[in-house]
Structure formats: structure tokens, C-alpha cells
Design a protein that fits this description.
Number of helices: 2
Largest sheet: 5 strands, antiparallel
Distance between the termini: 21 Å
Strand content: 25-35%
Radius of gyration: 25 Å
Number of strands: 18
Order of helices and strands: HEEEEEEEEEEEEEEEEEEH
């Protein structure tokens, strides 16, 4: 009976983790450049005796990142940028370079392009991009080349994760890479557009209902198992 409880508890723990992930996806359904996550369930088998009997335990420590592109929405903002296809912008944060698909940028008092959180946008050489003094309307080409008054002055870096490397969410729309990012050879940047979140609210809500029902079913099993143990103890102590 204890083994059944332990196995059920690992399942319940995994369902709680998935519920938190689904809730976070729903909360960020309108966050520019957000990438939805999912929980990866695995099965761990533990030997019980020499006869080959095993106990199956659920493991939900892994997370899956959905890199499917979101819808590009036209904003006509001069410094609103969206990547069409593969790749990420690279920004400089206090914790080091991070990748992001959120392309709403603005100039600082010093003319540096940055996010609303104060992270500086980096060029193809991973250096901060600075607008020329007195620059009027900035034009951004599909390859990331930035021009002011008809003169190019920088090229936005578009990078991707090498095959076999892992992206780790660092909060919101920022991702850390466990290696060096690779430049995208032929990036496609759309000026005056922003990429919406790739979260499907209808799917996430239906998934939340499924997870909740599964959790309630597991909880009812634990309650029945607990009552069965109590009844057995009561019968043996009479």
C-alpha cells in the first residue's frame, strides 16, 4: 500500500508542476515575444525485489520550450522589430547576454537602443547599438542593417542556439544559452511589427481543466488509500 501512495504522490507532484506551467502560459498569453512551455513526464522504474518486480514512479522535472513563431502584429513603431523565422535578438543584461524574441526597443538618454527593462540591444558583433547624434527616423532593413538619414550605422545581431544546446528561461521573455550563440546567416527582420505570444489560450485552458481533473482523481485515490490503512490499523488493534 505504501508503494501505491509513493507512486501516486510523484504523479501528484508532477501535475502540480504542470499546473504552474500552464497558469504561467495563460498569464503571458498577451506578452510580446513570449514562448509557451510544457512539462515533460518520464517514468522511473525502481527494483522492489530479486524477482524482477518494479515500482513505477513519475518524473516531471523536464520542461519543453515551444519555439513556434507567434503572429506578427503591425504597430508602425519605428523601433518595434520582429524576427520572421528562426533566430533571436541578443540583449545585454546584468547576468550576461540573453536571447529574446521581444522586439519593442527604445533609445536611452545616451542614444543606446534598449528594452523597457533597460537591457541594451546588441549588434552582430555583440556590442551595444548607439543611434547617431541627431538621427531622425531610423530605417531597419530585412537583414538588420540600421540607417539614419540614408547612412548605415549598425547591423542588428540575430542569433540562434546551436544544435544540441539548451535554452533556459531566465524570466519573462529572456533565455540563457548553455554555449555560444550562432549568428543567423540570412535573418528577416520586420520593422514596425511585434511578435505576439505563441500561447493558444483555448488550448491552455482546456489543458488546465484536464490537469485539475487528473489531480482531483489522484487525490481521491490517496484519500481512499489513507482510509484503508486507518481501517486496517483499527482492525488489528481491537
Amino acid at each position: 500500500m505504501e508503494n501505491a501512495i509513493y507512486a501516486s504522490l510523484t504523479r501528484q507532484s508532477g501535475l502540480m508542476k504542470e499546473m504552474r506551467v500552464v497558469a504561467n502560459n495563460i498569464a503571458n498569453a498577451n506578452t510580446t515575444g513570449y514562448r509557451r512551455e510544457g512539462v515533460i513526464f518520464a517514468e522511473n522504474l525502481s527494483a522492489l525485489d530479486r524477482n524482477g518486480d518494479t515500482l513505477s514512479m513519475a518524473d516531471a522535472r523536464g520542461r519543453m520550450l515551444d519555439l513556434k513563431q507567434g503572429v506578427l502584429t503591425q504597430t508602425n513603431g519605428n523601433l518595434d522589430l520582429a524576427i520572421e523565422g528562426d533566430g533571436f535578438f541578443m540583449v545585454e543584461t546584468p547576468d550576461g547576454p540573453r536571447l529574446t524574441r521581444a522586439g519593442a526597443f527604445l533609445p536611452s538618454a545616451e542614444g543606446e537602443l534598449m528594452t523597457a527593462d533597460g537591457n541594451r540591444l546588441l549588434d552582430e558583433g555583440q556590442a551595444p547599438i548607439i543611434l547617431p547624434a541627431g538621427a531622425g527616423k531610423v530605417a531597419v532593413g530585412a537583414d538588420g542593417t540600421m540607417s539614419a538619414n540614408g547612412a548605415p550605422f549598425a547591423r542588428i545581431g540575430v542569433f540562434d542556439a546551436p544544435e544540441g544546446s539548451d535554452l533556459t528561461r531566465q524570466g519573462g521573455t529572456l533565455f540563457a544559452l548553455d554555449g555560444d550563440a550562432e549568428p543567423v546567416e540570412a535573418p528577416r527582420i520586420q520593422q514596425g511589427f511585434l511578435e505576439e505570444s505563441n500561447v493558444d489560450p483555448v488550448f491552455e485552458i482546456s489543458r488546465m481543466i484536464e490537469v485539475q481533473r487528473a489531480y482531483e482523481l489522484g487525490q481521491s485515490f490517496l484519500d481512499r488509500e489513507d482510509q484503508r490503512i486507518r481501517n486496517a490499523i483499527s482492525a488489528m488493534t481491537r
